Fold these 4 entries.
Entry 1:
Amino acid sequence: MEDTRKTILIIEDEAGISELLSYALRREGYKTIAEFSGYSGMDRLKSEKVDLLLLDLMLPDINGIDICRTVKSEYKIPVIILTAKSDIVDKVTGFSFGADDYITKPFDIREVIARVNAAFRRIEEIESKRQHMRHIKLRMNIDIYTEERKVTKDGQVISLTPKEFDLLHLLARNKNVVFTRDKLLDLVWGYDYAIDTRSVDIHILRLRKKIGDCNGMLIKTVFGVGYKLDN
């Protein structure tokens, strides 16, 4: 059976601290890998799938800041810095090179667990939003697939012009937000497009017809203002 646990790499040269972190994180359901030097830790990153890095700044061979900079540029995983330094300069430097969090030793292990859990929650929230933006589901069994620029109803593809798609996609990404006709012109057509607000009304009518919303139950007219998508 495939091991689906999140893997945390601990680069910490103090064996006692490393063992404490590994034990506590394993109890939380994580898989841990412990390395005691910067070079061995970087080798592990190349050979293992790592989901988060707990990184000591004061290592015997490589400056932890250099490791942080490399990891954030090449691996795109969260980095939580652990260090005995409490100087604000070190904290700012760590964040400037992409560190996601900073914990000063001595620490309460419960704080470390909470920070690790929070880092993974942020990743899940970002991925959930990204997935939502790729696929937006509307009432009336309408689905919008952003990357494919495709719209379906009851599983059947609806043929939309590029501007009709952009208009529907904008409204769907901002459900219940009222857009004036001028704002829709700006966001969908752009300032330099030589059309007037009547073109917005025409596109809305065509769009409603194509998606089976002739009564305006999904794309609602806000009289005297503009349009919104009511979902």
Entry 2:
Amino acid sequence: MRELLTIAILCNDASVRREQNSWAITGDPTEAALVTAAEKAGLSSQDLRNHHARLDVIPFESDSKFMATLHMIDGEPHILLKGAPETVLERCALSEEELHRIGNAMGV
């Protein structure tokens, strides 16, 4: 779960911050929800973003249905991806059987 939430923070343009007695978001509400979930789980979006700087990005577009970011993690480049389930699954190195099983479980 920690790895998934780390990806949720790094492949994300939203921020959540405390302003007096309430919380304010910058960016897409769905992305802000991902950041909030990660912060509630004890991760620091600021620390993760500082430690794993974004090197490049493919921004989310409704046509492509995904967002991808490039980061150096543990000295190696990693592409992090989030988006529509069918779009993400297309880009995974899975067998046809695995793709079919996961797609069925997700209803896609």
Entry 3:
Amino acid sequence: MNMIALTPLLERFEMENGTIVTLLLFTGPFGLLPGGLYTLIERFILRSNSAAIGASVWVFLLLCVEAVKTYRQNPAFKISDYSIPTWTTPLFIIFVIHFLVPNTSLLGHLCGALVGYLWGLGYIKFLAPNEKILRWVEGKLNLLGRLPHYVSVDQKTYGRYGVLPSTSNSPGVGPGRGTLGAANGIAIGPVGSTQRLGP
């Protein structure tokens, strides 16, 4: 279940941040920070010794990153007369899962959520490696050419497939493939189409 929930969230994070950044963050700080926080609270504050395993911490970390982005575009949603901040949605899910699914770690999920909120708000963005170093590594290893679906540092801003083609007013340069042609400002269909309408 964790992998089913994690895969689309992780793919979206990769498209926005790049493959190397995602790999480095999830094998480093995004595992160490929630795990270290969980261990400190569990051992020294709660003084217990319970184990927590699974990828659900990452699921809630990424849900909180998405919740912060949603909050910036749509601060609240209404249920009846109540206005609920959108950033609280993952917290609601964490508590529902804690009560419905046995043997889940409420503390572990909350630690993951905290790290997700910190990343989403930009407080720990410094954990991502420098882009100049990443470009150098990508160039030396030719990762874009070797790995299918690799998201490079330069592609991450525009998504996995880079900049989409657009129309151009330069002489001798037509619109990109798959774009719409226009006559007097009215879209007439895909440029280069051989399909004729009517006789």
Entry 4:
Amino acid sequence: MASLHTNSHSEQSDLSSLKGFIPLIGLTGGIGSGKTAVSDLLGKLGAGIIDTDLIAHQITAPNGAAIDSIKNEFGSNFIDNTGALNRDRMRTLVFADPAARKQLEAITHPLIRQETIRQAKALTKEGAPYLVFVVPLLIESKSWQGVADLLVVVDCPKDLQIQRVMQRSNLSRDEVEKILQAQSSREARLQHADFILENQGNLADLEAEVAQLHQKILQIQKDQLSSS
């Protein structure tokens, strides 16, 4: 859900302390573009992966760090019978009410920020060669552009995005269209990209592209080490 993704400037300021010490890679793309597939491949190559969407799901899962505050702010009807956030109901609310979106973000963003920084520092200490921050709304936040050493965009045609999300999440075409409208346009993402991964559904092609990206990032790491 779009409103659960962090875009806080203070998060980026904290992460900037790692800049120059370890390559920081921003990975983004529209919903259904294949960000998870790419981050999984990079993880297999040794990258440290921090997925802000996964963190958002964790803090709104049963007994998640955000659940009590969400219940207090929005009411128990926004919590499902498992104790997790009722994402369908919240999605409907925040798309219709910008004030509700801001209320939700005020709860979730600080928690996502805290966990993002914790994971980044832990992975750095563990010796990851570089860090990949998977951020669905990275372009929208703008402040990431000053922190990431490389901004990677996973791209595919809009119709393919819609088909994937409808199949994956059992959403209607209209629901997916509304999510897309809340994100930057495909053109805006590509304009900001330092590296573009085309994901049309051929895994072998995607693996080859990711391998090329991995080598490019390792060169950034090598340059950082030689200049330190």
